[in-house]
Amino acid sequence: MYLDKDGKDREMNSRMGTRSGVKDSIPAWIKFSVQAPGEIPYSGIYYDPPEEEKYVFKHPHTKRPKSHAGMSSILCISLFPCMNCYSSLLSDCLPVLICCYLLSCHIFCTVSSNILYDMFLQDFENEKKSRSFLY
Fold it and tell me: Which of 42, 50, 70, 127 is the most buried (most CB within 10 A)?
Protein backbone atom coordinates (compact mmCIF):
# COMPACT_ATOMS: atom_id res chain seq x y z
CA MET A 1 0.00 0.00 0.00
CA TYR A 2 1.12 3.56 -0.50
CA LEU A 3 -0.15 6.92 0.59
CA ASP A 4 -1.73 8.86 -2.20
CA LYS A 5 -1.48 12.65 -2.55
CA ASP A 6 -4.79 12.80 -0.73
CA GLY A 7 -3.27 10.90 2.21
CA LYS A 8 -5.25 7.71 1.54
CA ASP A 9 -3.59 4.31 1.81
CA ARG A 10 -3.18 2.49 -1.48
CA GLU A 11 -2.15 -1.14 -1.49
CA MET A 12 0.73 -2.28 -3.68
CA ASN A 13 1.01 -5.94 -4.58
CA SER A 14 4.06 -7.66 -5.91
CA ARG A 15 3.47 -11.21 -7.09
CA MET A 16 6.08 -13.59 -8.34
CA GLY A 17 5.36 -16.78 -10.20
CA THR A 18 7.84 -19.49 -9.24
CA ARG A 19 8.01 -23.24 -9.79
CA SER A 20 6.56 -23.80 -6.34
CA GLY A 21 3.65 -21.44 -6.94
CA VAL A 22 2.73 -17.79 -6.66
CA LYS A 23 4.39 -15.73 -3.92
CA ASP A 24 3.44 -12.30 -2.65
CA SER A 25 6.28 -10.07 -1.55
CA ILE A 26 7.00 -6.51 -0.57
CA PRO A 27 8.57 -4.57 -3.48
CA ALA A 28 12.23 -3.63 -3.23
CA TRP A 29 11.65 0.14 -3.27
CA ILE A 30 9.46 0.01 -0.15
CA LYS A 31 11.28 1.57 2.81
CA PHE A 32 8.66 0.97 5.48
CA SER A 33 6.38 -1.94 6.30
CA VAL A 34 3.58 -2.39 8.81
CA GLN A 35 1.62 -5.34 10.12
CA ALA A 36 -2.13 -4.97 10.27
CA PRO A 37 -3.73 -6.06 13.56
CA GLY A 38 -4.71 -9.72 13.45
CA GLU A 39 -2.76 -10.45 10.25
CA ILE A 40 0.53 -12.27 9.89
CA PRO A 41 2.00 -10.84 6.63
CA TYR A 42 3.44 -7.36 6.48
CA SER A 43 2.23 -4.71 4.06
CA GLY A 44 4.67 -2.37 2.40
CA ILE A 45 3.94 1.34 2.48
CA TYR A 46 5.37 3.54 -0.24
CA TYR A 47 5.20 7.22 0.51
CA ASP A 48 6.96 9.84 -1.56
CA PRO A 49 6.33 13.11 0.26
CA PRO A 50 6.55 16.49 -1.44
CA GLU A 51 9.85 18.36 -1.16
CA GLU A 52 8.60 20.70 1.58
CA GLU A 53 7.61 17.73 3.80
CA LYS A 54 10.83 15.73 3.37
CA TYR A 55 13.23 15.65 6.30
CA VAL A 56 16.47 17.53 5.74
CA PHE A 57 19.49 16.62 7.84
CA LYS A 58 20.99 19.51 9.79
CA HIS A 59 24.59 18.31 9.55
CA PRO A 60 26.39 16.44 6.75
CA HIS A 61 27.65 12.90 7.21
CA THR A 62 31.05 12.58 8.82
CA LYS A 63 33.86 11.78 6.43
CA ARG A 64 35.33 8.30 6.54
CA PRO A 65 38.91 8.13 7.79
CA LYS A 66 41.59 7.50 5.20
CA SER A 67 43.21 4.76 7.24
CA HIS A 68 43.04 3.08 10.60
CA ALA A 69 46.01 2.18 12.78
CA GLY A 70 45.15 -0.75 14.98
CA MET A 71 46.18 -0.60 18.62
CA SER A 72 46.86 -4.24 19.37
CA SER A 73 50.13 -5.89 20.27
CA ILE A 74 51.46 -9.38 20.75
CA LEU A 75 51.95 -8.73 24.47
CA CYS A 76 48.29 -7.87 24.97
CA ILE A 77 47.10 -10.89 23.05
CA SER A 78 49.35 -13.53 24.56
CA LEU A 79 50.03 -12.49 28.16
CA PHE A 80 46.92 -10.71 29.38
CA PRO A 81 43.96 -8.94 27.82
CA CYS A 82 44.39 -5.18 27.93
CA MET A 83 43.51 -2.03 26.05
CA ASN A 84 46.54 -0.82 24.19
CA CYS A 85 47.35 2.86 23.76
CA TYR A 86 49.44 4.90 21.37
CA SER A 87 52.34 5.33 23.79
CA SER A 88 52.67 1.57 24.29
CA LEU A 89 52.45 1.12 20.53
CA LEU A 90 55.38 3.51 20.16
CA SER A 91 57.43 2.01 22.97
CA ASP A 92 56.68 -1.72 22.52
CA CYS A 93 55.50 -2.53 19.01
CA LEU A 94 57.33 -0.15 16.69
CA PRO A 95 60.86 -1.13 17.80
CA VAL A 96 60.00 -4.78 17.18
CA LEU A 97 58.54 -3.98 13.77
CA ILE A 98 61.55 -1.85 12.84
CA CYS A 99 63.90 -4.61 13.96
CA CYS A 100 61.98 -7.18 11.89
CA TYR A 101 61.97 -4.83 8.90
CA LEU A 102 65.71 -4.18 9.15
CA LEU A 103 66.39 -7.88 9.59
CA SER A 104 64.30 -8.75 6.54
CA CYS A 105 66.06 -6.01 4.53
CA HIS A 106 69.44 -7.35 5.63
CA ILE A 107 68.49 -10.91 4.68
CA PHE A 108 67.13 -9.75 1.32
CA CYS A 109 70.27 -7.74 0.56
CA THR A 110 72.52 -10.63 1.57
CA VAL A 111 70.64 -13.15 -0.53
CA SER A 112 70.36 -10.86 -3.53
CA SER A 113 74.05 -9.92 -3.34
CA ASN A 114 74.99 -13.61 -3.16
CA ILE A 115 72.80 -14.35 -6.16
CA LEU A 116 74.30 -11.46 -8.12
CA TYR A 117 77.81 -12.50 -7.13
CA ASP A 118 77.13 -16.08 -8.22
CA MET A 119 75.73 -14.85 -11.52
CA PHE A 120 78.79 -12.68 -12.04
CA LEU A 121 81.13 -15.59 -11.29
CA GLN A 122 79.19 -17.85 -13.59
CA ASP A 123 79.40 -15.29 -16.41
CA PHE A 124 83.09 -14.81 -15.70
CA GLU A 125 83.71 -18.57 -15.85
CA ASN A 126 81.74 -18.82 -19.10
CA GLU A 127 83.76 -16.01 -20.63
CA LYS A 128 86.97 -17.66 -19.50
CA LYS A 129 85.96 -20.93 -21.16
CA SER A 130 84.88 -19.22 -24.36
CA ARG A 131 88.18 -17.28 -24.56
CA SER A 132 90.22 -20.43 -24.11
CA PHE A 133 88.72 -21.83 -27.31
CA LEU A 134 89.58 -18.71 -29.25
CA TYR A 135 93.31 -18.89 -28.56
Answer: 42
Integer Cα distance of 88 and 9 in angstroms: 61
CA distance to 48, 49, 61, 72, per residue, from 53 (Å):
10, 6, 21, 48
79 DSSP 8-state letter = T
Q: What is the pLDDT along the chain (135 residues), one digit of tens a residue?
A: 445 555 555 556 667 777 888 877 777 777 677 777 777 677 777 777 788 888 888 999 888 767 655 555 555 555 555 656 667 666 766 777 777 777 777 677 777 677 766 766 666 666 666 655 554
Q: Is 59 left (phi over 0), alpha (psi -120 to 50) or beta?
A: beta
15 CB contacts (<8 Å, ≥6 apart)? 22, 23, 24, 25
Instruction: Give the C-alpha separation, 132 to 135, whole Å.
Output: 6
